[in-house]
Design goal:
The complex is a heterodimer of chains A (275) and B (129). With 275 residues, chain A is an alpha+beta fold. Chain A has one domain. Helix content of chain A is 19%, strand content 24%. Chain A has five helices and nine strands. A nine-stranded mixed beta barrel of chain A has the order 1-2-3-4-5-6-7-8-9. Chain A starts with a helix and ends with a helix. In chain A, 36% of the residues are buried. Chain B is mainly beta and 129 residues long. Chain B has a single domain, classed as OB fold (Dihydrolipoamide Acetyltransferase, E2P), CATH 2.40.50.140. Chain B has one helix and seven strands; from the N terminus they run ββββαβββ. Chain B has a five-stranded mixed β-barrel. The longest helix of chain B has 6 residues. Chain B is globular, with a radius of gyration of 14 Å. The chains are: A alpha+beta (275), B mainly beta (129). Chains A and B meet through helix 5 of A and strand 4 of B.
């Protein structure tokens, strides 16, 4: 009896140690997080998408600023491909643009009138998001606008997708990188916050999330849009960095027309008016 | 109003503030001259810590006594509170110097860089590098 009890304890300890070893594969730790184990396949929790310059994450190298002073240069390591004539005619908001092509569209912007922002533009927001992992799916909640989507793991896109704001996302693990593939957009959303044009309904997004330390997750995105940039061109290597915030709880952040209307009157319209 | 040279700008700092250019959600920052920073000495009229973006409003008086009313945007409460800001960080009547990336079109609106008080205290909408 005592032997069976001891064996049970021994097996339990071995099982715990084995599972622990599997779950806490340590990777190269960034400075300040040394010694903190993490499971690179566990992205659960709240992550804060810092912008370069907010102190937590710096991005250097090509494209840290562009000649127009746009923040775009801080976010993108490669320039946007040239728009096709069709895209210039159909996706660009020419009306109200007072600062040249491909600068902010003063008469239209992501989330205008509280329309959905969607992914990838939500990654441009300095706001937190939360991953909730469950069997067969990962749900991603964005605090901003209270938008969310489901990433269906190890599935294929359906053949008869109904176009939506968020599109249809499928995910898989490629080593320690979560690769999320999204199609099925309705083409009503901006590509990013600093863009003057929408994506087309052929937009195709590939996101790669990699937890590189207990505290840090890197996101690299490739944008494909044959209607916008042609079949040969793609906008690759669009980067964001997220910081793990285990103590944070997502807060309520609805977009309301009242709040936005007031902001429009006080800031946006004066800034966009033609003098 | 439209001639910024009459404003009580104590200095104009021209430079590419690459490392301190946070994003403005939704609408981008292209309406602002992010390469120019105005230092505006004025009196706070209101501070709204709110979504979608907080707004600091203040009056700037020039040498002739003319008053310009400015409103500048900064981050939403989530981002500012994380940096220690509160609704009481700026109160009506506070004498401050507001550093602003101004609108390109000359309107008296802009994008907040920082606020300094007479006692040397600073309020930053972004964490220092």
């Amino acid at each position: 009896m005592r032997n069976r009890f001891a064996s049970a304890i021994f097996l339990t300890v071995v099982a715990l140690l084995s599972s622990s070893a599997l779950l806490t594969r340590t990777a190269a730790q960034s400075e300040g997080t040394k010694g903190k184990a993490f499971d690179p396949h566990d992205l659960s929790g709240v992550w804060y998408g810092y912008f370069p310059g907010r102190g937590a994450v710096k991005v250097s190298g090509p494209g840290t600023a562009d000649k127009k002073g746009s923040i775009r240069g801080l976010l993108y390591s490669s320039p946007e491909p040239t728009l096709t004539p069709w895209a210039e005619a159909n996706l660009v908001f020419h009306e109200g643009v007072s600062h040249g092509p491909h600068q902010v569209a003063t008469g239209a912007y992501p989330g205008q009138d509280c329309d959905p922002i969607g992914v990838p533009a939500l990654h441009s927001e300095p706001n937190p998001m939360e991953f909730v992992q469950s069997p067969g799916r990962i749900v991603q909640f964005f605090e901003y606008h209270r938008e969310w989507r489901t990433i269906w793991m190890n599935e294929q896109h359906p053949q008869d997708l109904e176009p939506t704001y968020m599109g249809h996302s499928v995910g898989k693990w490629d080593g320690d990188t979560l690769v999320v593939d999204t199609i099925g957009y309705n083409g009503k959303e901006f590509v990013d916050i600093d863009s003057s044009h929408r994506m087309s309904d052929a937009f195709h997004l590939v996101e790669r999330y990699k937890r590189v330390s207990y505290d840090d997750m890197e996101l690299s995105m490739d944008f494909y849009d044959p209607k916008a940039w042609g079949t040969e061109a793609a906008w690759k290597g669009v980067r964001r960095n997220y910081k793990f915030k285990p103590d944070w709880k997502l807060q309520e952040y609805y977009c309301t027309k009242e709040e936005w209307g007031d902001f429009d009157q006080k800031i946006l319209k004066p800034a966009a008016s033609v003098k | 109003m439209h001639n910024r040279s009459t404003a009580c700008c104590i200095s104009i700092l021209v430079g590419l503030l690459v490392v301190s250019v946070p994003a403005s959600a939704h609408h981008g920052v292209a309406a602002y001259d992010m390469k120019t920073t105005l230092a505006l000495k004025g009196t706070v009229t209101s501070f709204e810590l709110r979504n979608p973006h907080s707004i600091l409003s203040f009056d700037v008086k020039d040498d002739k006594g003319n008053v310009q009313h400015w409103s500048v945007e900064t981050h939403n409460p989530r981002a500012l509170v994380d940096l220690g800001w509160t609704k009481e960080s700026l109160k009506a009547g506070d004498e401050v110097t507001v550093y602003v990336h101004p609108a390109k079109n000359g309107s008296t609106v802009g994008y907040l860089v920082k606020v300094t008080f007479g006692n040397g205290k600073e309020l930053l909408p972004s964490a220092p590098e």
